[in-house]
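Example 9 (inverse folding). The structure is encoded as follows.
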């Protein structure tokens, strides 16, 4: 096997359809984390900070979400990203 991936045992990553897809990928070795293991992927914290600033209420289009994410990502400071680790 020359490809590896890992998941953090989050239910959205371990659903049956995802597990079945990996079962059909013989060239990908799945490395499993311990249940409730530490989060070694700081991008989750970065996305969390951006998502928390998304105002609630009202219907929005996918295009509005895309524009919002572009607008939020640009000024996201290196310090904020570093503090997310």
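The amino acid assigned to each position is listed next.
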């Amino acid at each position: 096997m020359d490809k590896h991936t890992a998941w953090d045992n989050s239910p959205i990553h371990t659903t049956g359809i995802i597990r079945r897809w990996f079962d059909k990928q013989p060239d990908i070795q799945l490395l499993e984390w311990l249940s409730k293991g530490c989060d070694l992927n700081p991008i989750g914290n970065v996305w969390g900070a951006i998502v928390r600033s998304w105002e609630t209420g009202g219907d929005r289009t996918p295009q509005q979400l895309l524009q919002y994410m572009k607008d939020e990502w640009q000024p996201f400071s290196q310090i904020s990203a570093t503090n997310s680790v």
